[in-house]
Amino acid sequence: MTETTAQATRITREQLAARIAQDIPEGSYVNLGIGAPTLVADYLPLDQEIILHTENGMLGMGPSPERGEIDPDLINAGKQPVTALAGAAYFHHADSFGMMRGGHLDVCVLGAFQVSQRGDLANWSTGAPGAIPAVGGAMDLAIGAKNVYVMTDLLTKTGGSKLVEACTYPLTGVGCVTRVYTDHAVFDVTPDGFAVREAFGDNTVELLAELTGLELVDASTRGIREGE
Amino acid sequence: MTETTAQATRITREQLAARIAQDIPEGSYVNLGIGAPTLVADYLPLDQEIILHTENGMLGMGPSPERGEIDPDLINAGKQPVTALAGAAYFHHADSFGMMRGGHLDVCVLGAFQVSQRGDLANWSTGAPGAIPAVGGAMDLAIGAKNVYVMTDLLTKTGGSKLVEACTYPLTGVGCVTRVYTDHAVFDVTPDGFAVREAFGDNTVELLAELTGLELVDASTRGIREGE
Amino acid sequence: MIDKTVATVEEAVSGIRDGATIMIGGFGRAGQPVELIDALIAQGASGLTIINNNAGNGDVGLAALLAKKRVRKILCSFPRQHDSWVFDGLYRAGEIELELVPQGNLAERIRAAGAGIGAFFSPTGVGTQLAEGKEIREIDGRSYALEYPITADYALVSAYRADRWGNLVYRETARNFGPIMASAATTTIVQVDELVPLGSLDPETVVTPGIFVDRVVAVGERGWLDAGAFVGGVDIEGRPLAGAAASGTEVDQ
Amino acid sequence: MIDKTVATVEEAVSGIRDGATIMIGGFGRAGQPVELIDALIAQGASGLTIINNNAGNGDVGLAALLAKKRVRKILCSFPRQHDSWVFDGLYRAGEIELELVPQGNLAERIRAAGAGIGAFFSPTGVGTQLAEGKEIREIDGRSYALEYPITADYALVSAYRADRWGNLVYRETARNFGPIMASAATTTIVQVDELVPLGSLDPETVVTPGIFVDRVVAVGERGWLDAGAFVGGVDIEGRPLAGAAASGTEVDQ
Fold first, then answer.
1. Which of B28, C216, D75, D227 has fewest C-beta within 10 Å?
2. Could you list the residue range(s) of the whole structural domain that residue B154 is in?
3. Which residue from C139, C202, C204 is facing D118, i.e. has the nearest CB?
4. Which of D98, B49, A111, D32 is nearest to C199 (CA)?
5. Count of domains for chain A
6. Is the complex ipTM more than 0.90?
7. Nearest 5°: CA angle at D43, between D42 and D46?
8. Given A55, A66, A165, A210, which residue is catalytic?
9. CB-CB under 8 Å, C121 with D120
10. pLDDT tens figures, D147-203
11. How many CA atoms lie within 13 A of A71 on its CB side?
C-alpha cells in the first residue's frame, strides 16, 4: 500500500513458528489451536518437555503418526490424526474446557483477522453476508490461557494492517491478547497500546508505525533477518 | 401423650427397614444416607440388583467387609468400611454430587427431626444453642433424588409428632419429601397434605390423626402388624 | 438382573419421536455414533433438533442424517469444516436452522444439565456477538455471561466397552462429549465396540457410570474405520481427499 | 525434563506462609494427606484457613493441625463427628471460626474455581439457613441460590500413584475431593504411595492430569494405615473405639 512496504523485512511462516517456539519455556502447557499455529510444534526443542493440550480432550499430544498407523479415535482439534506421548492423559470436553477457562494453560497460540491495541481479538468471523459462522473453541482459548499469543501476517493480502485501533470484524475475545507474532515484528499488548518487542531484520518502529497506521511504543530489539 | 398412644401398633426399626426395601424396585439407584436408613440395605432382596450410591464417590457399594479385610480407602458416607460389587464405579465429589443434584438417583432414604405436610424436611440441626452445626450431604440428597423417602419414628421420645404442619427446626430442604415411613404407618406427601398410605397393625387414620394432630387423607391399606 | 444391553441398533433407537431433541456425541468423526445414526435414519424420525459439536463430516453419520432432511435445527460450535458439504448446502438453501455456541460453553451447558445446575456465569464469549442479549455480570473484576443448561430427550453416544449395567469406557479422544451428554439426556443410548462381562471393567477406570445409561448395543468394530484410517473425506495418510480444503483452519492466513 | 517430584514432605510444604488458605483433600480419613499435614505442622505456618469436608478425626492429620492451634478458620460441610473431639473443643472455646457449606455446594464451588466459572445457581440449600443472604432466582419453575467459587493458595492432596509430570490416579473412595481441589488451588502439593515411571499410567485412567499438580512426594505406604485397618478412633473391625459414638448419624433416631 505504501512505498515503504517494499523495503520491509518479512520472515517466513516457518521462521515465525520457530520464533514463537523460542518463547515457550520447558514445562509449559501449550495449546496451538488449529491451522498455522500448529506449525510451532515442529520447532519446539526435542530435548525439552513441553506439554501440548488439544481441546478435544488430551494433554501430552505427540506428532503425526507414521504412515499406516493412523488411529481414528486419536485426533487433534483440527481433526488430524496425532499420537500420544508417554505421560499423556485423556479427558472429556467439559474437563478440557474447564482446564482452558480456568486459566491452567500457560500459552495458547491463535491466528487472527485483527488484533486491537487494547488486545481485542477477531479471528472467527469476517461477518461476510452468507458466510457460515463457526467458532469452535476460539472464544474459550482467547480468554483462557495465561498468555494468549497471536501468530499472523502483519498485513492482509491487500496491504491493510491486522493490528488496528479497534477491530471491525466480530470479536472473539475482549482484551485477551498478550503478544502478537507477525512476519514483520513481535508486538506486546500494553496499557499504552502495541509495544514493538522485536523488529525483524531492518524493520524499524517508524516503518511498523507507518505500515500499521498506529502509534507504537518502542521496546524493540533486533530480531531475525530475512532468510536467516 | 394421649390415651390412645398405648394402643398404637409400632413396628421395629428392622421391620421398617424391610418395609422400605419392599418399595425399591430392581434396577433402582439408591442412596441410603447415613445412620438408620443404611439398615435398608440389609433387606434388599439378594436375587435382585439394586445399585447403591454413596455420596463420597461410588456406585455399586457392597456390604461391610469380612473381618480383617477392611480397606481404609473404601468407606461409605458414614465413614464405615464397605466393599465394592462387580460393576462398581468410583468418581470424585463434584461428579458424585452432580449425580445427586441432577436428579439421577431413583430413591434416597433419609432420617428426620420433622417433616411438614408440604414435604419440607428438617434433619440437620435442632437449632439448639451451643450445638455444633453439621450438614454434610443432607441438603443435596433432600433436593436431588426422584423419590425422597424419610425413615423415622412417628413420635419423638417425649411423644411429640415428627409429622408437623410446619417445621420448627431449621430446614434441610423445601417441599422435597415424597413419602414418610414411620413405625406407625406410611404417609405420602400430597398436595392435600399427608395421606396415610399404609397403617401398620390395628392403627387407624383416626388414631394417626390424633397422634400427629394433623388432618390426614385416608388412602390406607392394612400393613405390617406388630411383631410380624 | 439389570441388563441394559439390547440386541440391535434398531431396538436401541426405537421410540424416538418426530420433533425430538437429540444429543449426538463425537468431535468430527472421533466418537461419532455412526451406527446409531444410521439406525435413526432407518427408523425415520424427523423434525429433529440435533446437538453436536459439528454439523457432519463427509457423507456418513450425522451428515447422512442431515442429507435425509430429518433435522430441523442444529446446535453446535463448528459447523463449517472442509468436509461439511452436506450441512453447507442445507444452510445456504435455508433448510436448516443453526444455533452457534462456543465449544466450551456448549460442553459446560451440557454438563450443567446433567449436574442440576440452574445456570452459570461463563467468561467465554463476553463482549462478542455470541453473548448478545445474555445477562452480563462483573464478578471479582471480570465480566461473565449467564449461560443455561442444555438438555435433550436422547443422547446417542459411542463408547469403547460397556458392561450390562451400562458402565462405559472410551478410547482416546473419542471420549469428548460422550460422558457429559450421557448425563444430560433423558434417555441415553450407547453403541460400543464390545460388551464385556460385569466386573471386567476396573471401577477405577469407568468414565461413565451406568446410572447415566439406558440402552447399550454392541456394533463390533466400527465399519467406517478401515485399516486404521478414517473412511470418508480423509485418505489413509490422514490427508483430506481431493476436493476438501487443506485443513479446518478457522483463519485466513 | 519436567520433574515435579520432591524428595521429602518438608520440601513439599515449603513456602507456605502464615495466613494461607489451604484445601485439604479427604473425606474422613480416606484421602486425607496425613503425612503432608504432619509436615505442615512441623513447618509451622499458622493463622491458616482450611477447606476440608470435615474438621479432623481422632488425633492425627487435620485434627493434629487443629490441636496445635494453627487454624484460624475452617470451611467444611460436616465438622461434628464421633471422633472430632479436637475441633469440638476448639469450637466450644471460641478458638476457631466455622463456615458451614452443604457438601455438594462445597464440591461444586471448588470445581467452579478450577473451571473458571464466575458463579452458578444451585438448588441445594434454598429455603434453608445456609442460603440466607444469597441471591435467589427462579429458573424454569425451580428456585436456585447463587454460589461463588472457592479458591485456595494451596491444595494438599493424597493420591495413590503419580508420575514425574504429576499425573495422578487415586484409590477407591479416597479419590473424593482430590481431583477438584488440585484444579482449584494456586499450588497443588500431592503425596502418593508410589511414584511410577513416566508412561506407566494408562492415559485412559489418569484422573488428575499433571497440569493441575505442582509438587509430588512419595510417602510409601501410609503409616497411619495398619494391617488393613484405620488407626485412631476405629478398631480393626471398623467399630469406633470406646468413647466414640456409635455412628456419624445426623439424626436423633
1. D227
2. 13-218
3. C139
4. B49
5. 1
6. yes
7. 105
8. A55
9. yes
10. 999 999 999 999 999 999 999 999 999 999 999 999 999 999 999 999 999 999 999
11. 15
